[in-house]
Amino acid sequence: MSTEITAPDSINTPSLIPTLPGSTYVDETVFRVEQERIFEQMWFCAVWAADLDKPGAYKTVQIGRESILVSRTRKGQIRAFYNVCRHRGVKLCMEESGQAARSFQCPYHAWTYDFEGKLIAAPNLTKMPDIDRTEYGLVNVHVREYLGYVWLCLADEPPSFEEDVMGAIEERLGDLRAIEGYDVANLSLGRRITYDVKANWKLIIENFMECYHCATIHPELTEVLPEFADGLAAQFFVGHGAEFGGDVQGFTVDGSEGLERIPGIDEDQDRRYYAITIKPTVFVNLVPDHVIIHRMFPLAVDRTVVECDWLYLPSVVESGKDLSASVELFHRVNQQDFDACERCQPAMGSKVYAKGGVLVPSEHHISVFHDWVSSKLL
């Protein structure tokens, strides 16, 4: 793996470079464009596949402006549809999750759809022989399964999954094989915590991308990963994993011994932490004994729900071992980060922040994200 620095040349680049304008974090029109051109056009990590454990199990998720129904068919396949009845537009499933017995039925006029999305029944349907039951079935959404999660794309012609999702991992780690040893798709859910963050989604991504703040607000994390105390963002380096401190035994809140190591990882990945950002809304965190996945759901210009999953070897979860020290470390990091983002959000609309702020050298790589966002808003 290459360890070539990807930060801008410090000799030819000013120490301070501008951020996005403050309005991009508070303007409803900007957020609507982001919904249309980012969330509704890209691959969106929506559901942990194992949550759909049997036919008829479903989850509803908000992607951009759309409610999407994700379910498992009787053949075991995962399908996704717009959560909209084709008759009069009623939202089919109001709950965030549930179990349908035989079909999905509209609560308004009882139009009924099977788990493949086909219209199978409706009052007086036999008297309407010209209705094509497939054409008037639920509208499909593109589906891919990867890393144990269901990824959805609402675009008519989705972008390349290999380039946008897998390519982001390869770009960060230097080689896709670097993540294969973690066998993420076959890990088990040890803990899930949902955070309702009163901040714009971009603030959360920017926070994750830099460690200039780590020494200030992450005392537990910098004890485990000492290089973070110097403000060095691991994202500067392709393939770089932040090394555990010399006296640290595991990725835990007190540096105590972790849990059973994932057997497929390489020796040079042991005692290291890797962070990956997959645009638009996914963070992947890799450590020797577990994987942490953040999935963000931007619901408003100033509100983002974040679901965070801690994944371990199935034998660890099944054994009932105490996960608290392992979970607590990143739970505190999350709380500290989200509190910082919520402190930023009110000032985004201030007249003194109208032109935005500045990035110091260890944050310059965030400008790549800003350029990407700007390109989507044009």
Task: Give a structural overview.
This protein has 378 residues and is of the alpha+beta class. It folds into 2 domains: 17-41 and 186-377, Naphthalene 1,2-dioxygenase Alpha Subunit, Chain A, domain 1; 44-146, 3-layer Sandwich (Rieske Iron-sulfur Protein). The protein has helices at residues 28-39, 161-173, 177-180, 201-209, 214-217, 219-224, 314-319, 324-344, 366-377, and strands at 17-18, 44-48, 57-63, 66-72, 78-82, 97-99, 104-105, 112-113, 119-121, 142-146, 149-153, 188-197, 242-243, 272-278, 282-287, 290-300, 303-312, 358-359. Strands 12-17-16-15-14-13 form a 6-stranded antiparallel sheet, sandwiched between helices. β16 (290-300) and β17 form a beta hairpin. α4 crosses α8 (324-344). The two termini are 35 Å apart.
Short structural description:
With 378 residues, the protein is α+β, with helices and mostly antiparallel strands. Helix content is 23%, strand content 25%. The protein has 2 domains: 17-41 and 186-377, Naphthalene 1,2-dioxygenase Alpha Subunit, Chain A, domain 1, CATH 3.90.380; 44-146, Rieske [2Fe-2S] iron-sulphur domain (Rieske Iron-sulfur Protein, 3-layer Sandwich), CATH 2.102.10.
Give the helix/strand layout.
Blueprint: E1 17-18, H1 28-39, E2 44-48, E3 57-63, E4 66-72, E5 78-82, E6 97-99, E7 104-105, E8 112-113, E9 119-121, E10 142-146, E11 149-153, H2 161-173, H3 177-180, E12 188-197, H4 201-209, H5 214-217, H6 219-224, E13 242-243, E14 272-278, E15 282-287, E16 290-300, E17 303-312, H7 314-319, H8 324-344, E18 358-359, H9 366-377
Antiparallel strand pairs: 1-18, 2-11, 3-4, 3-6, 4-5, 7-8, 8-9, 10-11, 12-17, 13-14, 14-15, 15-16, 16-17
Helix pairs in contact: 4-8
